[in-house]
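Chapter review: from sequence to fold.
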Amino acid sequence: MFTGIIETIAVISKLEREKGNLHITLKSDLANEFKIDQSVSHNGICLTVVDVNYKEYVVTAIEETISKSSIGSWKVGNEINLERAMKMGDRLDGHMIQGHVDQVGKCADIVEKDGSWIITIKYSKSNNITVEKGSIAINGISLTVFGSNNNSFSVAIIPYTYSNTNFKTLKVGDTVNLEFDILGKYLEKMLSKHN
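The token string follows.
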């Protein structure tokens, strides 16, 4: 479980395919604190640490993860949002995030507005929904939805979040990982069984 409060940025230093798997080597100041078998959120994707070597570590994505997220388009040098799993007893500053990407979306618009940014995301038709003032995770970042429409929504990004996540590198047309609010997913499933 994660909260969507990004701790730091990692930089991809190596990508290696092995059959259906993708091994990703990343550089991070947190690497020496990681343990093998630890779950870490990478742009909202929960991946297991399989090797640690000083300031670098390796995670592996399976074909299922590659097909449902933006991970297949990652390149050496990309900045990736990192968050370690939450600890029992800590404050829950964001919202509950599982690290299981529901689908990808595309950045449709970025508007700078009075020192902040309004980002609009479009996504393919699915059972996933957003609600006004509800929660969404974009690349693992816990955000509040506004302008909720069918298959699109907007979020407001404050300067701190913009500077300390990979939102600063986001461009119109870029693909992002979306994890919709877990409560909304349960509710949608329950309601669809009764219709």
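Two observations follow directly from the output. Residues 8-84 form a domain with the Elongation Factor Tu (Ef-tu); domain 3 fold (CATH 2.40.30.20). Helices lie at 63-68, 159-164, 182-193.
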